[in-house]
Amino acid sequence: MSGSIRIGRANRLAGALPWLYLLPVVLPLIVWVYEPLGEAAWLSFFEWDMLPDTAKRFVGWANYRNLLALPKLWKAVGNTVIYMLGLLPFSVVIPFAIAIYTQDLPARFRNIYRVLIFVPMIVAPVVAAAVWRWLLDPAHGLVNRLLIGAGFEPVRFLTDPHVAIWTIIFITGWKLIGFATLIAAAANAAINPSLIEAAKLDGAGPWAIIRRVRLPLLSSTAMLLVTMSLLLGAQWSFAYINALTEGGPLGATINIYYLLWDFGFSSGAVGWSASSAVLLFVAFALLAMGLIRLSDRLSFHDD
Amino acid sequence: MMISVLIGRVLPRGVLGHGVMLVLSFLSLFPLYWMVVSSLRPANAMFETSLWPSAATWANYRYTLNAIPVAQMLVNTLVVATAVTLVQLCTAVLGAFAFTRWRFRGQGLAYALVALTWLVPLQVVMIPNFLLVADLGLLDSVTALILPHFASALAVLMTTQAMRSFPRELIDAALVDGAGNWRLLWQVIVPNLRGTLASLAILIFISTWNEYFWPLLLSRTPENTMIQIGIQMFMTQEGNQWGPLMAASTMASMPILALYVVLQRQVIQSFMKSGLR
Fold it and tell me: Which of A109, A39, A133 is nearest to B19 (CA)?
């Protein structure tokens, strides 16, 4: 009798044991990620300015309705798409082109280049922002000094509304391109050489080999880079927007992440910030699901 | 493409390959070189374009050290990055052990809960997190910079992956020897995961060192913030003091760049293993 009770208790303890080990992981994630997500959804139905002594006023769907009627939101959404697509040349297209083009360099040199082109990846975003701000300064920056020296007009890289967003994309891409090249080169080097040999024996020229053999085999890595860059690119740009343009000039560089920040901490409009956060989360999750499904369908394995 | 084909007839392909890589290397490094050079130029020669200052000086560094508490900020950053790295490694080891040692009810749910955290952008949860820190009375404190980083999906998932490939026979042998779960984990499994844990440590340390968003949200006074936000504050206040700004940027980058010089290969490998995050 007492024996069976002890076994029962031991079993129950054993059932709790995995959760005991998981607690230090799950608890912080609930406290700092999932509970706040729910709280953001809750706050999105209220009007509140975040001051502790003012009351929250329930407004139903009004925040969402007002938000969707706001031109600034659609401007930010449009810019977010530009950020996502504008980053693709830096995170996918150029890296794969370089990786394939330089695959025959001797290993010794490849290792040196690897070490050099990776460096921007570990530079802090604020440092990158500060350095590029100096290089691109309209009056005294080195880039404009060279442009003027070559007979061109100086470019106001961060204050010209037509140029600023591309400057931010360029800086975001600058930090990424070397690392993306390393990922592309690793995937390219992992292609089984016998497949290339077989294609050569079949009479395929260099272009045919790239198009028919290499690119299909690289598609899953490319898709991974596309997914990462579409999902996270606009987030990566946040630091540069905040440090360099604060969304300006005239909202030209504002994206949806910066808009949330602006609502929440500059305007103090918690309800607006929370409702746009909920919309962003839903859009982000749908996009992620779509991309993951697409990459499952597209990826190609050489086994 | 036509152009490169034409040039390719004249120049051997290898030369062009080197050319491409040299251009990319130059673009990667030159801005940092310019940062260091500018930080050493005296104020009256800031707009020189020579590749090395005609008269190098530490004046910008002295100015920056007087203007903002750089040393305190660097210490804060070091404390936060070290604490976050250690805590995240521990929680990852514990969580990964739970995922690989047992099959239990709710396991799939728990795993999904961890794996899906990256779907929640920081900007979405920033207000509730800010309010929570305010309720705890921890606004503008170094503690609050560490708190939300006790566990990370990346660390748990990478450690779980590594533990899955840990040889079953070694676990069974240890269990036969009468080792409990705790001893099995820390004395048998963890010592064999040194490689994975080391690359994780590098990854967590560097990304915490460079972190921007969370300290930006919380920090109010220079003494209580991390170096990146220090530069941000400095840039806002004295935007066009290029020399001191470059000196501050150089000081903020040196620890990580020094780490990179010593551990290049491991740093690159850690980042490659983790994908792009």
Answer: A109
Could A265 and B217 be called an inter-chain contact, meaning their C-beta atoms sit closer than 8 Å? yes
Contact yes or no for A235 and B121 at CB 8 A: yes
How high is the ipTM of this complex? 0.89
Interface A-B, measured as beta-carbon pairs within 8 A, has a size of 267
Nearest to A131 among B31, B91, B121 (CB): B31
Tell me what percent of the residues of chain A surpass a pLDDT of 90.
Answer: 41
Which two three-digit tokens encode residue B127? 């207000």
Q: What is the mean pLDDT of residues B224-250?
A: 89
CA pair distance A63, A55, nearest whole angstrom: 16
Alpha carbon distance A68, A269 (integer Å): 15
Quick check: B103 pLDDT over 50? yes
Is residue A215 within 8 A of residue A241, CB to CB? The reply is no
Closest residue, chain B, to A227 (C-alpha) = B276
Q: Taking a C-beta distance cutoff of 8 angstroms, is the pair B85, B152 a contact?
A: no
**Would you state the structure tokens that stand for residue A55, as one six-digit string?**
């009351």
- Three-state SS for A303? coil
Q: Quote the pLDDT of residue B4.
A: 53
pLDDT at B11 over 80: no
Only one residue has tokens 């591309």, namely A166
Q: Do A270 and B119 touch (CB under 8 A)?
A: no
User: Shortest Cα distance from A99 to chain B (angstroms)?
Assistant: 10
Length of chain A: 303
Please identify every stretch of chain A with a pLDDT value under 50, giving residue numbers as ranges: 1-7, 302-303
Share of residues in chain B with pLDDT > 70 (%)? 94
Task: Give the pTM.
Answer: 0.90
The radius of gyration computed from the CA coordinates of chain B, to the nearest angstrom, equals: 24
Q: How many helices (H) and strands (E) does chain A have?
A: 15, 2
Q: CA separation (Å) from B143 to A6, A126, B90, B274?
A: 43, 22, 18, 27
pLDDT at position B10: 52
Q: Which of B104, B148, B242 sits opposite A32 (nearest CB)?
A: B148
For residues B228 and B213, what is the distance between their CA atoms, to the nearest angstrom?
10
Domain ranges of chain B: 2-57, 62-273
pLDDT single digits (tens) A127-176: 999 999 999 998 889 999 999 989 898 899 998 999 999 999 999 999 99
Strand stretches in A84-215, DSSP E: none
Q: Can you list the positions of beta strands (E) in A4-85?
A: 46-47, 57-58
The average pLDDT across B246-275 equals: 90
C-alpha distance from B251 to closest chain A C-alpha (Å): 10
CATH 1.20.1560.10 for the B62-273 domain, yes or no:
no
User: Which of A30, A177, A261 has the CB atom closest to B123's CB atom?
Assistant: A261
**Taking CB atoms and an 8 Å limit, are B275 and A31 in contact across chains?**
no
